[in-house]
Amino acid sequence: MATEIQTWQIIDGKLNIVNSTLSENGRKEKEDLEEWIKSNSEILGNDIAIIGQQVQTKSGPLDFLGIDNNGNVVIIELKREKLPREVLAQVVDYASDVSTWDIEKLGEICQKFTDQSLIDYLSEKFPQKQIEDLSINQVQRLLLVGFAVEEPLSRMIEWLSTNYNLGINAIVLSYIKTKSGDELLSKTVIIPEEVEREKSNKKKFIIDMSNEPGTYEINELRENLIKYLSKNIVSSQRIKDYFLPALLKKDMLTRVQMRKEFARNGAADNERQAGYFLALISNQLGHKWNDYLRQVIHYEFPNYPWEKDNFKINDEYKELVKEILEKLNE
């Protein structure tokens, strides 16, 4: 059966059923429901930080994009009234696109929505978590929010959750305006929240990281570097345009010095933003499959075991790097 919530107001010792909807009281999804969620996202769950609103996907804008305290991305779709069965296909379509987004794209969305870097924002929202340990967007959660839910959709949600361990849920809100003018909002869920979170966390996996350099022959190394530096992703372009050129000018650059170089050369608006960009580059250097980058770029861990510093290009590859950058810039 579809979930339905009814509310009674006790007046003079008697129960008086309260029937009211957003539309009946002049409330609208975009102007009201979205604003309520923005002002207090705990209505979605206390483990979700919203990083974007009306985020464009290949299939249109999704209402809210969030990240939970385990790094899972949460696709949130709102309906002012009843959640129809068709909304399931809609959020699955969104999720199929969002699943391909890297941390840089998520960071740009977060910066635009919160005016903070993704790392700073998540650190603020989840102070008990080691943000560096989160594996961002390895799992996607689907969260539907409305004021009722069609029975077929409720059934499909339970089936997907039970049989396929999909992190999916529906939040059913109850909006009440009493005769005295008080407005109340309550919620219930199709799947118990702790069950839904557990299913998402079970599917979580960690990206393989390494500090071991590659051992490629020079021609294969050249080919791998050209292929990587030609990719249309932000970090590889920053490595090509700013990171490697800076290292060619110096024998070694510390993390602080590299941040200053990024800001001075226009790669970042300020050193704080440069630090975020450098964290993304460090993440790229640590991916196990990017061992050809580590064969060329040397780094150390002088301050913290998780923070790369003291960057340099190994002497035997400086001419190779110059050659590749000249070729790509042509």
Description:
With 330 residues, the chain is of the alpha/beta class. Helix content is 42%, strand content 22%. The protein is built from 12 helices and 12 strands. Strands 3-4-5-7-9-10 form a 6-stranded mixed β-sheet, sandwiched between helices. It has a two-stranded antiparallel sheet with strand order 1-2. α8 (234-249) crosses α10 (271-286) and α9 (255-264) crosses α10 (271-286). The mean pLDDT is 85. GO terms for molecular function: endonuclease activity. It holds the Pfam family NucS_C. This is Endonuclease NucS.
Could you write a compact summary of the structure shown?
This protein has 330 residues and is an alpha/beta fold. A hairpin with an 8-residue loop joins β11 and β12.
Please give the structural blueprint.
Blueprint: E1 7-11, E2 14-18, H1 29-39, E3 48-57, E4 60-68, E5 73-78, E6 82-83, H2 86-98, H3 103-114, H4 118-125, E7 140-146, E8 148-149, H5 151-164, E9 168-177, E10 183-189, H6 193-202, H7 218-229, H8 234-249, H9 255-264, H10 271-286, H11 291-296, E11 297-300, E12 309-313, H12 318-329
Parallel strand pairs: 5-7, 6-8, 7-9
Antiparallel strand pairs: 1-2, 3-4, 4-5, 9-10, 11-12
What key phrases describe this protein's structure?
22% strand; Trna Endonuclease, Chain: A, domain 1; Arc Repressor Mutant, subunit A; 330 residues; two-stranded antiparallel ribbon; alpha/beta; 12 helices; six-stranded mixed sheet; 2 domains
